[in-house]
Each structure stands twice: as C-alpha cells, then as structure tokens.
Amino acid sequence: MTTAKDIMSAGAQWIPAHETLDRAAQMMRDHEVGALPVSANGEQDKMVGIITDRDIVVSCVASGHDPSKVTAGELCEGTPRWIDATADVEAVLDEMQSHRIRRLPVIENKRLIGMISEADLALHLSDEQVAGWAERVYSRA
C-alpha cells in the first residue's frame, strides 16, 4: 500500500505565526516551496494554518498591505488540514479533494515531516488518479 509518506516531499519547513510575510516569502524562495505551515508561536508541533505564495500576493500585497508588517498568523485562516504519514493514497486524495486544497502537510508522531503538493501527486500517481483529483479540486462546482 502506498502511503502519504511514500509520495510526500520531505523536509517541510514551519513558519512561526509571529513572523512577517516578507520573511515567509524569503523562506519560500530559499526552500523552493510555495507553501508553509504556520506554527503557534514557539510551538513547532502545533499547526495553526498554512500560507501560500498566492495568499501573500492576493491577500496582502494586492490588497495594499505591507508584507513586512503583516504576520503569517494574521494571514492564515480556517481549520488547518493535514494527513497522517500512514494514510493511504485514497485518503490523501479524499482529504485534498473534499477541501479543494493543493498542498497537504504530512504528520508523523505529531511532527511535521513533509508536504504533499500537486507535483508529488503527478510524480507518484497514475494519470487517471491525477486527472480525477484535478477535476474535483479545480472545478467551479
């Protein structure tokens, strides 16, 4: 059985909720990622959300806010979604599809160990699985 751990990209990085969005953008650039899980201040095992490069651009910069003054904690909203490392691929796809999300943190023993992105799905799943996922995540319905 293929698991979340089998298809994830390892080494996901946290950003503390108190860090600014310009720092988040720098971390995304340095680690070549498009999303960062946001941790409760000082608690790297408590996820309070996730921010993406698109969130920074659309919700901060395009809205006229200064990314050096807005924090990651202020930008992330909603219930953070994640998947256990031992979950099978169908559970991964279901979680991503049902919440229409493109990136999913992977947790093992209450610790962040990786992230699953569209690229990971494309590398590890069949064309049919990826097409089905994309149809459900990107559809306007």
Automatic annotation (TrEMBL):
SUPFAM superfamilies: CBS-domain pair. It comes from the Bacteria. Keywords: CBS domain. Residues 8-68, 75-132 form the CBS domain. Transmembrane segments: none annotated. This is CBS domain-containing protein. It comes from Streptomyces nitrosporeus.
